[in-house]
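User: Please fill in residues for this 435-position structure.
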């Protein structure tokens, strides 16, 4: 007899003979009858094995299977009003594809609280839990939606090297790697390369790739390896051109998650709200005033800090604004490649914040060779080690700017996951290099 393979999302009560493949989530043996719950990526199906109706060998093997074993079970589908799917499978043949060892390192359906570290130490088993795994289906969807949105905006996807000779975002977070007897680093961002490309005619580019930062702090929003969504565009009039693109891309992406990710969101019991657009704009100075009138004591030029960002987020959310811009940060705080706002201590820069947390930094870049050189020197950087980058500015570099968005931070905020590690399959941080 032929047994067509079905999964729990397509199986129907009138299917007749089928094969189901999955993990044995649970077994109940009641003497004359055994019930198994078999789980695949979509859900679960009940296998009902009455001793009298099932082959003796199959029955004995079923009843003694360790939980989480991988099996293939063939049999007849029968309607049942006792199960969620309205059907049950009466087994005729069983193939144990891989028997699970006992005890399990981690329960899959048990409701006990386990330490996050224990979960991460046993990540493949942890991922068997639908609510853990589903985040990665949404991350994959998010990734596709970004491609979609960038195509609409006329951007070309590029790939820049991840082994680099110099850093872009300051020396403190560089990972050094040996390179044929020379020293090199893991790229903190594609910053210098995407800017070099701006001189080429590929004048709207984006990249979605890992970025590496030796973050020595242990927080819920920093890891050593994250997925960075970078964009850069040339011939801009001001940074507003960049912000307009980003705003459309964010709205498209979040709307897409709500729409195409509806099944996953339901499983996670999450509701995603489309932020109110256009996103309001605050300046850094306005933020300082807001925070200081809330009782903080921040000096001019000082970083708003985690607490400041959080508080601004609260004030903005009270007015129904989940996503907002913070612009014109002090030039001194910003990397050398950011353009200064002439005659002021500020810069043509912005952050995009999502409910109290920075998810992106960007701005207009300094495209004038002489001014760029001066800014580097002021920051104590040796232009010689940036020679290849600087060359691209010597023969007609258009005005340009761009952004870097932490993809996991975006997802974590969208889904309210709490810890960035929930959105990374195998996270890397100061304390974790395996698995
Ligand atoms: P923060 O101040 O929050 O540490 P940053 O200003 O140092 O971030 P940028 O250099 O502006 O980070 O990087 C652009 C974006 O990349 C950030 O807005 C964030 O979304 C993401 N990002 C930066 N560092 C990390 C990290 N260590 N882990 C995860 N995401 C990061
Ligand atoms: Mg930043």
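Assistant: Residues filled in for all 435 positions:
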């Amino acid at each position: 007899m032929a047994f067509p393979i079905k999964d729990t999302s397509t199986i129907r009560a009138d299917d007749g003979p089928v094969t189901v493949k999955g993990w044995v989530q649970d077994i109940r043996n009641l003497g004359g009858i055994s019930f198994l719950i078999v789980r695949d990526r979509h859900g679960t199906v009940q296998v009902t094995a009455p001793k009298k109706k099932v082959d003796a060998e199959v029955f004995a093997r079923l009843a003694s299977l360790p939980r989480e074993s991988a099996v293939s079970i063939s049999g007849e589908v029968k309607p049942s009003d006792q199960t969620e799917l309205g059907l049950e499978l009466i087994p005729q043949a069983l193939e144990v594809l891989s028997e699970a060892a006992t005890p399990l390192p981690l329960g899959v359906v048990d409701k006990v609280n386990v330490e996050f570290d224990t979960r991460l130490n046993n990540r493949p088993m942890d991922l068997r839990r639908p609510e853990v795994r589903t985040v990665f289906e949404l991350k994959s969807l998010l990734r596709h939606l970004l491609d979609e949105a960038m195509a609409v905006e006329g951007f070309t996807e590029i790939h820049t090297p991840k082994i680099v000779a110099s850093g872009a975002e300051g020396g403190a977070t560089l990972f050094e790697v040996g390179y044929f007897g020379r020293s090199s680093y893991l790229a903190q961002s594609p910053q210098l390369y995407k800017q070099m490309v701006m001189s080429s005619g590929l004048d709207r580019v984006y990249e979605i790739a890992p970025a590496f930062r030796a973050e020595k702090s242990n927080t819920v929003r920093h890891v050593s390896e994250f997925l960075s969504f970078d964009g850069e565009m040339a011939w801009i009039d001001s940074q507003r051109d960049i912000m307009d693109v980003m705003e459309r891309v964010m709205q498209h992406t979040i709307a897409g998650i709500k729409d195409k990710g509806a099944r996953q969101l339901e499983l996670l019991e999450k509701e995603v709200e489309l932020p109110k657009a256009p996103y309001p704009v605050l300046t850094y100075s306005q933020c300082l005033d807001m925070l200081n009138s809330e009782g903080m004591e921040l000096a001019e030029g000082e970083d708003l800090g985690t607490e400041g960002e959080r508080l601004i987020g609260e004030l903005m959310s009270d007015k129904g604004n989940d996503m907002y811009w913070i612009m014109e940060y002090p030039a001194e705080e910003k990397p050398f490649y950011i353009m200064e706002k002439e005659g002021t201590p500020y810069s043509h820069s912005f952050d995009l914040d999502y409910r109290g947390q920075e998810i992106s930094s960007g701005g207009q870049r300094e495209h004038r060779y002489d001014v760029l050189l001066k800014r580097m020197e002021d920051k104590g950087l040796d232009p010689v080690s940036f020679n290849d980058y600087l060359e691209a500015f010597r023969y007609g570099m258009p005005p340009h700017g761009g952004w870097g968005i932490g993809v996991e931070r975006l997802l974590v905020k969208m889904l309210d996951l709490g810890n960035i590690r929930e959105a990374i399959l195998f996270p890397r941080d100061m304390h974790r290099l395996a698995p």
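For context: The mean pLDDT is 96.
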